[in-house]
Design a protein that fits this description.
Layout (H helix, E strand, L loop, with lengths): L29 H8 L7 E2 L11 H7 L14 H11 L6 E4 L2 H12 L5 E5 L4 H9 L3 E5 L8 H6 L5 E7 L11 H10 L5 E5 L24 E6 L12 E4 L2 H10 L7 H12 L1 H24 L3 E3 L5 E5 L3 H10 L2 E2 L1 E3 L4 E8 L3 H14 L1
Parallel strand pairs: 1-11, 3-4, 3-5, 5-6, 6-7
Antiparallel strand pairs: 2-8, 7-8, 9-10, 10-13, 12-13
Helix pairs in contact: 2-9, 3-9, 4-5, 4-8
């Protein structure tokens, strides 16, 4: 009968790897909470998806009101956007691969290099998409136990086997916010065999304090096996448009473009990406304000005896005696945070740093609950 839930018999005919994969679960959207609890938009504080709560640059909103030519296919090569990225990073466009968000880039890398009887290495508590793209390609995932909730680079080196094709590193890491000093990453790159790709996922790079930043893009000249992944979904405020890119040796970007779907980045995303990347003063201001608010949150968490993992992203991974209860009660008050039991952190909640008004509402409810 239509609508009756039954066992998925198509699973017997599908790619065998799908039996071990569950769909990626994004943060609950505002609209769902509004439907479930009959709340208004004004009652919602969305702190569960690490979007920028400062939104996008004003110039982008102006551009969106004047969108034209949506009847035409986008530039399949993303010429203008690649030129802008190349100028920003002082690199040639041949090093650039565009993606429908950085997730798309991770999938392209996996499709190009992983297959049955190969393996990929990633850290415990690291971004779950590394695990998903590995299994989708019927490759074996090697999850290396974390050290203080972050990457153990020594153990990751020791985990390399002859079948290993890719090592994924997130810096800062999501969802824990841990950070690896760049000199350690460079030493790691020197030790990794040259035929193994190292994917350095820098989705939260722009939130790093200046003293912690490193021109890792310049390393591409030295390490032909390095791939740097960036996104415009976080500090640039373009999460709904889905836009990311990879920087790598031109020989690698050539391979990624062979498996990249045609028109995988749309016209509006490309045009807004060009504008966003040129608004570096705005981006720096967002980074500054985010750090101010994160520091205030840390101070208030300390007063409330809420434990958290020190983070260099735009979020804090907090620990509670009963995280599911806290999550449920916050949701009932219209405050969305992210449970991360799927990352083997059942007692933790990831909380995005909001603007001052958002954080005050969060803290008021937490103080009542605790």
């Amino acid at each position: 009968m239509i609508g009756k839930k039954k066992q998925n018999t198509w699973l017997n005919y599908a790619n065998p790897s799908l039996s071990n994969i569950q769909p990626y679960e994004p943060g609950k959207p505002e609209s769902q909470l509004i439907r479930e609890l009959n709340l208004s938009t004004q009652q919602i504080v969305k702190l569960n998806s690490n979007e920028s709560l400062w939104e996008a640059a004003p110039a982008i909103k102006h551009h969106l009101s004047n969108i034209q030519n949506i009847h035409s296919y986008p530039d399949g090569n993303g010429f203008e956007l690649k030129q802008t990225i190349a100028k920003l990073h002082n690199i040639s466009p041949q090093h650039i691969t565009l993606g429908n968000g950085s997730n798309d880039i991770l999938e392209l890398i996996a499709r190009a290099f992983l297959c049955p009887n190969t393996s990929a290495i990633y850290a415990q508590h690291s971004f779950i998409v590394y695990h998903l793209v590995t299994l989708t390609q019927q490759a074996r995932g090697i999850k290396v136990p974390a050290s203080n909730y972050g990457h153990n680079l020594t153990a990751m080196l020791q985990a390399i086997e002859k079948e290993t094709k890719i090592i994924f590193i997130a810096n800062p890491n999501n969802p824990t916010g841990t950070f690896i000093p760049y000199e350690q990453i460079k030493d790691f790159l020197k030790a990794v065999p040259k035929h193994i790709l190292v994917v350095l996922d820098e989705a939260y790079y722009d939130y790093l304090p200046k003293k912690e930043q490193e021109d890792s893009i310049a390393w591409l000249e030295e390490f032909a096996n390095l791939i740097i992944v960036r996104t415009l979904s976080k500090i640039y405020g373009l999460a709904s448009l889905r836009l990311g890119y990879a920087l790598s040796h031109p020989d690698l970007s050539d391979l990624f473009n062979r498996v990249r779907p045609p028109f995988n980045t749309n016209t509006i995303a490309q045009e807004c990406g060009v504008i966003a990347l040129q608004e570096q003063d705005f981006i720096q201001e967002v980074a500054t304000q985010t750090l101010i608010q994160k520091t205030r949150l840390e101070s208030e968490f300390n007063k409330l005896n809420i434990r958290y993992i020190p983070s260099l992203g735009n979020f804090l991974c907090t620990e509670f005696a009963d995280a599911p209860y806290i999550h449920q009660k916050l949701s009932e008050h219209g405050i969305l945070v992210r449970p991360i039991g799927g990352y083997e952190l059942p007692n933790h909640l990831r909380i995005t740093v909001g603007q001052e008004r958002d954080n005050k509402r969060l803290l008021k409810i937490l103080e009542q609950l605790l």
